[in-house]
From TrEMBL:
Pfam families tied to this protein: PPR_2, PPR_3
UniProt name for this protein: Putative Pentatricopeptide repeat-containing protein 1
Any single GO BP term: tRNA 3'-end processing
PPR repeats: 141-175, 215-249
Stored InterPro entries: PPR_rpt, TPR-like_helical_dom_sf
Domain of life: Eukaryota
Molecular function GO labels: tRNA binding
One GO location term (cellular component): mitochondrial matrix
Length: 507
């Protein structure tokens, strides 16, 4: 008896096939056993009689192999040797072990998911895990979960990252250091700061309750998470926790703190000063990234406290020297604006540089006008004082440093001249973006002739104007001949007029 080849896939059909095969084997065994009994020698007739009675009893069929008698063992050996091979059994065994040609292994799925993540196709990568692998009945590995949790963390999908993390634990995989780092990154990058902060707090509490030892990467991710969610004080506490756990606090640690300060537009500058003073107190040498981040706080952030009020400099900006005010002095006042501080030449007055290891100040109780970028820069020593501190720390400024300085200094020719002189002294060569920004700065203050003077720097440094250069130059065209001349220069340079240049001409 042979059955046609079955190619059914579903498991319940496999069960039906196995049941039919067992019934078929039972029939063959009864048939063969009856024939084999007739050939057994006469000295075993009693055994045959007992065997036949058991074969006729359906309740005991299949238990012969449980008997340790010699006869049952002989029968088993006879069955194995002489029972014909059923073609249907062979086909079923092949079908049970058959895997379709398009069915991938877990390693192939892991590679495919990695490639999709590199192409920024996170949705397709998640589809592979949640749909394709389930259809093919492939159990995901810990590598698959690690890739997806990390990708969700970088994109800020905190809810999905934590969901995948819980699924991974239900599968029996133990969390690793990279998983905690990715979860904190998801909180830091989440656009929903309240939700990200809540998840970061819960995760940190769980790690503390379980006494999990964290490494520097996890602490940095934690600092980034709390900092970007507005909890700068908690981020500072985490730095202290690193010290207590005998982990070396590096410049990178404070860079994450400064990045957190940048995310606070109202109070970021004051917070950044606190972070910088902590950096100095812990004897950590800042890097070029630290200085550039401080300039970003000068450019983008105010110096207000949580209540929206200007903090006095002695409490927020941490002036370390309290002066003895002299009578009948122009400086005999409790509040001195930074604009006045810039023009004071009295030797008793020392401009405070909050970047220095030790702050020096005289005759200053507090400062006002910190809503202006140039006033905030003055507290860091101005252009010269800022670059001097960089030199003390053996940090060489780059073009980004001077670009940020250009955006923060006062918009007047004197400050710009000092900046260009310092730039030349430091050996930094301007690029096209810097010069375009320079032209734009002068155009906005309606210094049109000064904007034209910047073009000489293109020749000095052998730079060729781009379309943005002509765009900012168009802002200074006041007459039709000037516009025609600029359009002619654009055509000679091989540029076509864009919409923003047309609008500039029209306005």
């Amino acid at each position: 008896m042979a059955y046609p080849r079955m190619t059914m896939r579903w498991s319940f059909l496999f069960g039906v096939s196995r049941t039919l095969t067992r019934q078929k084997n039972h029939i063959w065994l009864r048939y063969f056993s009856a024939n084999a009994i007739s050939h057994i020698s006469s000295n075993k007739k009693e055994f045959v009689r007992k065997l036949s009675s058991k074969l006729n009893d359906p309740d005991v069929f299949g238990t012969l192999s449980l008997h340790g008698s010699r006869g049952s063992q002989s029968l088993d050996s006879i069955n194995n040797q002489e029972l014909p091979v059923d073609e249907g059994d062979v086909e079923e065994e092949k079908h049970l072990s058959f895997q379709p040609a398009d069915r991938k292994s877990v390693e192939e799925f892991e590679k495919e998911i990695s490639q999709l993540i590199e192409k920024r196709k996170l949705k397709d990568a998640l589809f592979c895990l949640e749909v394709t692998m389930k259809e093919d009945r492939i159990q995901p590995s810990i590598g698959v979960f690690s890739l997806l949790i990390g990708a969700c963390g970088r994109e800020g999908y905190s809810k999905k990252a934590f969901s995948l993390f819980n699924q991974m634990k239900k599968k029996g995989f133990d969390p690793k250091d990279c998983h905690y780092t990715a979860l904190f990154n998801s909180c830091a990058n989440s656009p929903w700061k309240v939700d990200g902060l809540q998840r970061a707090k819960i995760l940190r509490q769980q790690l503390n309750d379980r006494n999990v030892l964290l490494n520097r990467a996890q602490y940095h991710a934690m600092i980034k998470a709390f900092g970007h969610c507005g909890e700068v004080n908690t981020a500072l506490q985490i730095v202290d926790e690193m010290v207590s756990n005998k982990l070396v606090v590096t410049t990178e640690s404070f860079s994450f703190l400064l990045q957190a300060c940048i995310s606070l537009p109202e109070e970021g500058f004051a917070r950044a000063v606190l972070v910088w003073r902590k950096l100095r107190n812990m004897r950590v040498t800042p890097s070029i990234f630290s200085y550039n981040l401080m300039l970003r706080t000068v450019r983008d952030c105010d110096a207000k406290d949580v209540n929206g009020q200007q903090n006095p400099i002695e409490s927020v900006l941490l002036l370390e020297e309290k002066p003895d005010l002299q009578a009948n002095s122009v400086l005999n006042q409790s509040i001195l604006s930074t604009s006045e501080l810039m023009i004071v030449t009295d030797q008793l007055t020392v401009r405070p540089n909050l970047l220095a290891e030790k702050i020096k100040s005289s005759n200053i109780m507090a400062l006002t006008g910190l809503e202006k970028t140039e006033n905030r820069l003055a507290l860091l020593g101005g252009i010269e004082g800022f670059l001097e501190e960089m030199n003390k720390d053996h940090v060489r400024p780059d073009i980004k440093t001077f670009s940020l300085l250009l955006e923060t200094i006062a918009s007047n020719p004197k400050e710009e001249k000092v900046l260009m002189e310092q730039m030349k002294a430091c050996g930094v060569i301007p690029d096209i973006s810097f010069l375009n920004m320079f032209i734009k700065k002068r155009q906005f203050r309606q210094d049109y002739s000064g904007a034209q003077e910047i073009l000489s720097y293109f020749q000095d440094y052998q730079l060729f104007p781009d379309i943005m250069t002509f765009g900012v130059l168009a802002l200074g065209c006041r007459t039709l001949p000037e516009a025609d001349s600029l359009m002619s220069d654009m055509e000679n340079a091989g540029f076509r007029m864009r919409l923003f240049a047309e609008i500039a001409f029209i306005s």
